[in-house]
């Protein structure tokens, strides 16, 4: 009982610290860039923004692991798969697990995204969320919700992305109302010089103040990416490095919260 | 919106234009929460969307009715046509001095180019054959039950319904007949045996020989710079850098404008080539609570102020209806040549009962009594690229108001303007609307400047500064005060299909502090509000267009907590070519305390208008669908919802809703024949 309460408290803490809920479809790429991702072009950001998978050319699979504040109880584990099914459309799915056996949150989603011309892609996701508590005193609960994403490519160097998750603010139908707040992200990624990308995201979680995030990426030798980033609310500094080859990639990131400490993240992907 | 009726050719401009309206409408909404005023501005624009102005017709003054076209530009266009003959395409505007990219973009949807035929004789046969009829029927309702209906305070049903019939023959004849029942008002029963609570009518004739304008019914009057007489719509501070107002003398009142209009007849006649004279008479019933004077000797019945909402839903609102009769008459004499306009305006107003404002120090100089006379002189003079304008006005109590300014078209895409205003503390006028920071034209001195130009990298900049002072007390400001209002907006076309704009506003206006004891210990403090808005419009194809907007608002006053408001919104517009439907939707998340509330323009039905304040924490969604059943028939509907997760009731008083959502459904049917 006491243990469960502690986990719930920690989980809330982790959510506050990242001002987001069950939304870790973000890899060490976005993580190293201040938590940005609405407009980024890597595999995991594409999965997170939903619309982005429309631009994938090959079937791809990814794994990601994040250990919030080095506490294994607060870790996120994700796996995602995306498959181009037509010339313009892609299907995708992802699974995320947060927490441990005593308290956990899980999310499964199905995605479909389609390109409309060269400049615009639209994606939709159907999400199944599960909140599990081992203690009989508390309830486990499930719910279905959805999300919509869109991306716009005005030029080869500029991407604009918008993603809305759970817009109708579905919440768990438990005795004590458990919110799953609506989440809105809008971002721009700009390839301002060769090899360098700057990105800015606005993030608004209905239950928290808005967050402005910045990220910068520089590519060395055509396959090594160095990244730094900043999230303003809460204040989190981040950096990371990654390798991106034509058929695989590995990225690591470190996020630093001034009070709660460091969060490492690692992710990997493979293109078939 | 009539926009959706446009042929595809200008549908690209349409989206841009919506953004343009948005900007103006939000500016107005911040200044006064008066929907009818802004609705009228929309009506004027929508009229010209349906009846574009022929640029070759140099005799018409229609172009000036589009408030973003300056005198210099009109004159420049006329002289271009004089020198080069009639234009063949609207794109020729590029060669006309003073029409920069921005102006041309804004203007395109409202203009056309046709050879001007020799003036045809007016005939009833042509009028009947070419006249356009339109009937609009509308319905709207809030879906949640509201307290006023449940406890019976609102006498009628919880829906609004209205109709409008218009007949238009070119720009010569326009007839409008309308009826409006607001939500909560009774319909064909009880207090409303005649059906609608409000009926509007106007018939306007334009350019019949020496008869320039003639109107009967409900109308609005606009002269000079608005210091002497200007009713209905008028921008207080322009957002695009133009400062001068462009009066139309007489125009029909908005079909659903339920107060503040003139009712009767008015006409403008031309005397010779340069002189015109306007005369008007209005006899209206105004709303207000009639009170009996404490002084039993005279037993005078008076009112404290007009009741200006147009709502007659409850017993007490009905008791205010039409209690005061107002007679108003006057005239305007104008001399005009190609560079100079001089006008003189005068009117006299008489009320059936005197106005005796509530005894409060800020009302000390407010109008009281039954009669008032206002006189004014206005002038506009165009000298090369400089346009001078001004007006002085006097009220019956011999108090003055004055405004003077200059607009300088420094280059094709640079407009600089500066102005000074001084509206006397004792100046009294119930029907003035002019440039300023006050809702009435009184007790204000100020000066300002605007600059519109194009910076390097083709970034368009509009910057404006206004500094003002109120020498006497105002409502909730119990001491003389001052303030400032600065705005800057940068717009950059990233590509042909994407436009990014960033705007910042800083406004500082004084108000009483929260620690108010009595009148004599009140201290005022600056209330500072800053808004930062980022807007990205993009249209990847002719069918899809999007708008992403992020806005912050910071509010700061010493006796209150500092607060921050935030809004993030996504608009999606989809106009498929294959099917006769078009869609517009928005999803927004916001968190904004009252002092830092954020206004955002919303797509709405024709004749309707919404720029709601986003206040509290929640989300907003709406879906707008237009079904073009045929060239002549249109069906438009809109569903919208507010969701406030933390609230268990919304609104207060009679509008209170038990719950955390407020949904609204509207539908409108329009047929043209």
Your description of this structure?
The complex is a heterodimer of chains A (272) and B (673). Chain A is mainly beta and 272 residues long. Chain A has helices at residues 2-17, 28-32, 43-49; strands spanning 60-67, 75-84, 89-99, 103-116, 120-133, 141-155, 158-165, 183-193, 196-205, 211-220, 224-232, 235-244, 248-257, 261-271. Chain A has a single domain, classed as Outer membrane protein transport protein (OMPP1/FadL/TodX) (Porin, Beta Barrel). Chain A has a 14-stranded antiparallel β-barrel. In chain A, a hairpin with a 2-residue loop joins strand 6 (141-155) and strand 7 (158-165). The longest helix of chain A is centred in the N-terminal third of the chain and has 16 residues, at 2-17. Chain A is globular and about 55 Å long. Chain A starts with a helix and ends with a strand. With 673 residues, chain B is mainly β. Chain B is 11% helix and 47% strand. Chain B has a 24-stranded antiparallel barrel.
In short:
The complex is a heterodimer of chains A (272) and B (673). Chain A is mostly beta strands and 272 residues long. Helices cover 10% and strands 56% of the residues of chain A.
